[in-house]
Amino acid sequence: MKVAVFSAKSYDREFLQATNAAQDHPHSFSYYDVLLKPETASLAQGHEAVCVFVNDDVGAVTLQRLADLGVRLVTLRCTGFNNVDLKAAAALGITVTRVSDYSPYSVAEHTVGLILMLNRKLHRAYNRVRDDNFALEGLMGFDLHGCTVGIIGTGRIGRIVGQIMAGFGCRLYCYDPYPNEAFAAIATYGPLETVLGQADIVTLHCPLTDANWHLINHTTIAQMKRGAMLINTSRGKLVDTKAVIEGIKSGHIGYVGIDVYEEEDSLFFQDLSDTIIQDDTFQLLQSFPNVVITAHQAFFTRNALQDIATTTLENLTHFERGLPLAHEVTYTPELS
């Protein structure tokens, strides 16, 4: 099967090639280090499938152009699929698959890393020591032991974050429309407003839907404890960035750690060090000393990349052979 791989980096090639080579009948991959969007869809000509990532534009216009080229499958090498117009895909007869599950420890452990870095100001301490500045003023943190962590979304990643933070001696308050009964043995579930009001650290671990777009906004920030830490390693559009900036400037938000950003598609996964970034909101956000930003790397472990490659190859092979697709994403009218 001929597959056009968009947003392809060296590590994507490494893991996809190695996993593909182990197949009985390997697929043929063409790699493109550009985002899939209407203007680049023509690169998929001669391919039966496209393989895309989180910031590729798989909207109605792109899908129509892919369909006109004979593309029958869109397979995502990620869990989220909010960048795909499932209704348009269904109407065009294009199948959509994803990676339903990969190492949840990768994102969970990165989340805890951001918490530790912000609390103990490790990023600032590292730079000071490199400049032979060994003063401790301005580096004071707090004990995580005894703090309350508010976990928004208790899927696998959220629960692992909770287990790790419980190991520090933290209290866990959680919000999820579908509470996990087993996790309730170590965590207390409650309404979102209550969780935000109790938490010293708020960490987001939920998918992006129409219902929770800008879940963190002026109203919910006002419900947070003054000086609380906000962490987002989930989806950028869960957070109203401008509202967060106002919260930082007023002191209502004490720390921010993000691995995702709502306008990241024009920034992340590329080297822009020799350019002038035009996103003033992002530039202002990263100027604050109590903000740490990583560029969507929480998933980036060897374990996770192997899981992603394995599932992606499974999706391609099963589609080609007409086998059941365990990771297919279908259009559901009531969720549209």
Question: What can you see in these coordinates?
Answer:
By secondary structure, this protein is α/β, with parallel strands linked by helices. It folds into two domains: 2-102 and 301-335, 3-Layer(aba) Sandwich (Rossmann fold), CATH 3.40.50; 104-293, Rossmann fold, CATH 3.40.50. 34% of the residues lie in helices and 15% in strands. It contains eleven helices and twelve strands. The chain has helices spanning 10-21, 60-68, 86-92, 104-120, 122-130, 156-167, 192-198, 218-223, 241-250, 280-285, 302-321; strands at residues 2-6, 28-32, 49-52, 73-76, 95-97, 148-152, 171-175, 188-189, 201-204, 228-232, 253-258, 291-293. The strands form two sheets. The protein has a seven-stranded parallel β-sheet, with helices on both faces. α1 packs across α11 (302-321), α2 packs parallel to α3 (86-92) and α4 (104-120) packs across α6 (156-167). The model has no long low-confidence stretch (mean pLDDT 96).
